[in-house]
C-alpha cells in the first residue's frame, strides 16, 4: 500500500515538473525575436548569418540606401538622392548675338573687257556681327579691308561691306555647320583711280565651340563684283577662306 502511494507521488511530481518546463519554454519562445512576414529576419539574425558564412556587409550610398529602405521617409529619400546633371549650353540661341574677328585669305581673278586676266592674292582683316532670330536663323554684317602701301607707286585699297544670312544646323552641341548668301558693296582704289559697286556671293562654314561662349570657325566664300578701272569694266571673282574666332553674348 505504501509503495503505491510513493509511486503516485513520484508520477505527480514528474508531471508537474514537465508541465512547468513546457510553460517556461513557451515563455522563452514568446519573448524571443520572431520572423515577421513583412519584415523578414531580424537585424540580429541577419548579422549573425552574414558573420557565420564570412561575408562582408554591403554599405550602399546614402541616396540608394534611403530609396531601398521600406520604412524611410520619402521626403528624406528625395533630399539624399543625387541631383540630375545639367547639360552645358554652347553658343547663342534665338535672341542672342555673335561677334567675330579673323582674317580672309583671298585670291582675286580680274577679267577686264579687253580679254586679259590677272590673279592677285592678299590677306584681308575681317570683323563681323551676327544676330540669331532663332536657333537656326542668323543675320548679320561683315566688313573686310586691305590697305597696302608699297615703297614705290600708288597705294592699293579694297574695302567690302557685306550683310549676310546663315542657316545653322548642329551636328552636336559643340560643332555647327552653316550656309547662306551674302551681298553688299565693294570699294577699290588703285593707281590713282577708285570705284565702288554692288557685290554678291555665297559662303559655307563650320564653327566649333571650344568654350560655352567662344568658338573657332572656317568659312570658304565666293564673291563677285564689277569695277571700272582705266576705262574698262572689270569682273572681279574672289575666292576666299575666312578663319577666326566667334564670341557670343
Main sheet record: 8 strands, antiparallel, barrel
How much of the sequence is in beta strands? over 45%
Distance between the termini: 119 Å
The Cα radius of gyration reads 44 Å
Low confidence ranges: 1-18, 32-38
Total count of strands: 8
Tell me the structural class: alpha+beta
Briefly, what CATH class of the largest domain?
Mainly Beta
**Shape-level CATH architecture of the largest domain:** Beta Barrel
CATH topology of the largest domain: Porin
Q: Tally the helices: what do you get? A: 4
Could you give the order of strands across the largest sheet?
Answer: 1-2-3-4-5-6-7-8
Please give the domain count.
2
- Can you write the helix and strand succession as a string? HHHHEEEEEEEE
Helix content: 10-25%
**Overall mean pLDDT score?**
79
Give the CA-based shape: elongated
What is the gist of this entry?
With 249 residues, the protein is an alpha+beta fold. It is built from four helices and eight strands, in the order H-H-H-H-E-E-E-E-E-E-E-E.
Report on the architecture of this protein.
- Helix 3 runs antiparallel to helix 4.
- This protein folds into two domains: 2-80, no CATH class; 97-248, Porin (Beta Barrel).
- The longest helix has 30 residues, at 2-31.
- It has an eight-stranded antiparallel β-barrel with strand order 1-2-3-4-5-6-7-8.
- The protein starts with a helix and ends with a strand.
- The chain is α+β, with helices and mostly antiparallel strands.
- It is elongated, with a radius of gyration of 44 Å.
- It has four helices and eight strands, in the order H-H-H-H-E-E-E-E-E-E-E-E.
Amino acid at each position: 500500500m505504501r509503495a503505491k502511494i510513493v509511486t503516485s507521488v513520484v508520477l505527480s511530481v514528474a508531471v508537474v515538473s514537465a508541465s512547468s518546463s513546457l510553460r517556461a519554454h513557451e515563455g522563452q519562445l514568446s519573448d524571443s525575436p520572431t520572423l515577421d512576414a513583412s519584415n523578414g529576419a531580424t537585424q540580429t539574425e541577419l548579422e549573425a548569418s552574414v558573420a557565420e558564412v564570412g561575408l562582408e556587409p554591403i554599405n550602399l550610398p546614402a541616396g540608394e540606401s534611403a530609396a531601398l529602405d521600406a520604412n524611410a521617409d520619402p521626403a528624406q529619400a528625395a533630399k539624399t538622392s543625387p541631383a540630375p546633371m545639367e547639360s552645358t549650353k554652347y553658343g547663342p540661341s534665338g535672341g542672342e548675338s555673335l561677334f567675330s574677328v579673323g582674317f580672309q585669305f583671298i585670291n582675286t581673278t580680274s577679267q577686264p573687257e579687253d580679254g586679259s586676266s590677272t590673279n592677285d592674292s592678299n590677306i584681308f582683316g575681317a570683323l563681323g556681327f551676327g544676330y540669331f532670330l532663332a536657333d537656326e536663323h542668323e543675320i548679320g554684317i561683315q566688313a573686310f579691308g586691305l590697305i597696302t602701301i608699297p615703297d614705290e607707286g600708288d597705294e592699293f585699297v579694297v574695302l567690302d561691306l557685306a550683310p549676310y544670312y546663315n542657316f545653322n544646323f548642329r551636328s552636336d552641341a559643340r560643332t555647327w555647320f552653316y550656309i547662306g548668301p551674302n551681298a553688299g558693296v565693294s570699294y577699290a582704289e588703285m593707281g590713282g583711280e577708285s570705284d565702288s559697286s554692288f557685290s554678291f556671293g555665297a559662303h559655307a562654314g563650320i564653327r566649333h565651340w571650344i568654350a560655352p561662349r567662344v568658338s573657332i570657325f572656317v568659312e570658304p566664300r565666293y564673291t563677285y563684283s564689277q569695277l571700272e578701272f582705266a576705262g574698262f569694266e572689270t569682273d572681279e571673282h574672289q575666292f576666299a577662306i575666312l578663319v577666326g574666332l566667334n564670341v557670343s553674348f
